[in-house]
Amino acid sequence: MKLKENINLSDFILKVRECRADVTFLSPEGDRLALKSALCQYIFASLQGQPALLNGAAILCEDSADYELLRNYLV
């Protein structure tokens, strides 16, 4: 699924922490960030000023129930 435009990344990361399984950010170039990792969360948050990277990326949830938890942030 794709991220909605202009979401609050801090709120999104807090919601990711509530997910049961791994959540991955997949960039358009194929880079993967495990969003439950503190280091990856820091890198992800640094993308705030690069909407092209955020809008072209995908969010992958290992547990399909986690998509419901993140529904306010995903298209």
Key words describing this protein structure:
75 residues; alpha+beta; 3 strands; 37% helix; 15% strand
Layout of helices and strands:
Elements lengths: L8 H10 L4 E4 L5 E3 L3 H8 L5 H5 L2 E4 L3 H5 L6
Antiparallel strand pairs: 1-2, 1-3
Structure description:
The chain is an alpha+beta fold and 75 residues long. It has one domain (9-73). 37% of the residues lie in helices and 15% in strands. It has a three-stranded antiparallel β-sheet. A hairpin with a 5-residue loop joins strand 1 (23-26) and strand 2. The longest helix is centred in the first third of the chain and has 10 residues, at 9-18. The chain is globular. 17% of the residues are buried. The model has no long low-confidence stretch (mean pLDDT 94).
**Helix and strand sequence:** HEEHHEH
Q: Oligomerization state of this entry?
A: single chain
Average predicted local confidence, pLDDT: 94
Total of helices = 4
Strand content: 5-15%
| Structural domain count | 1
Sheet with the most strands, sense and barrel status: 3 strands, antiparallel
Please state how the strands of the largest beta sheet are arranged side by side.
2-1-3
Approximately how much helix is present in the residues?
A: 25-40%
The helix-and-strand class reads alpha+beta
The Cα radius of gyration reads 11 Å
What's the end-to-end separation, in Å? Answer: 6 Å
- Outline, from the CA principal axes? globular
Regions with pLDDT < 50 over 5+ consecutive residues? none
Give a count of the beta strands, DSSP E runs of length 2 or more.
Answer: 3
